[in-house]
């Protein structure tokens, strides 16, 4: 994800980039979002944790849309992540072996939406509701 973000900034900073994260529903939401954009006639590339690895997608171009599923691991390792639209679906305890606490896990997921031009946050759980309140 980090290399893609750097390449996008250099080659096509206006290329629409939708990044989707959450504990559950990432793959479905990513696939549906890409399908909607393709059905609307948009040049759309889908990847990340679903389908193709992000670095195998076509290079960034201003009119090409990128819909990317992002795990907490990928967000954690991508300090330059800056999606046009960041989507945080939900948060439930997961990957705590890596992140230690739920608060740390939530803070990593929050980076995706905090660094986006437009943030879309599901507020059905208290962690996401708190993030939405802060933003």
CATH architecture annotation: 3-Layer(aba) Sandwich
Q: Total domains, how many? A: 1
Strand order of the largest sheet: 2-3-1-4-5
* Overall average pLDDT: 95
Beta-strand content: 15-25%
**Assigned CATH superfamily:** Mur-like, catalytic domain
Low-confidence stretches: none
Structure annotation, total helices: 6
Measured distance between first and last alpha carbons: 23 Å
- CATH topology title: UDP-N-acetylmuramoyl-L-alanine:D-glutamate ligase
Annotation, overall tally of beta strands: 5
What spatial form do the alpha-carbon principal axes imply?
globular
Helix content: 40-55%
Instruction: Give the CATH class.
Output: Alpha Beta
The helix-strand sequence is HEHEEHEHHEH
Structural write-up:
- With 135 residues, the chain is of the alpha/beta class.
- The chain has a single domain, classed as Mur-like, catalytic domain (UDP-N-acetylmuramoyl-L-alanine:D-glutamate ligase).
- Helices cover 41% and strands 17% of the residues.
- The protein has a five-stranded parallel beta sheet with strand order 2-3-1-4-5, sandwiched between helices.
- The two termini are 23 Å apart.
- The model has no long low-confidence stretch (mean pLDDT 95).
Describe the structure in brief.
This protein is α/β, with parallel strands linked by helices and 135 residues long. The protein is built from 6 helices and 5 strands.
Question: Which features does this protein show?
Answer:
alpha/beta; 135 residues; 41% helix; UDP-N-acetylmuramoyl-L-alanine:D-glutamate ligase
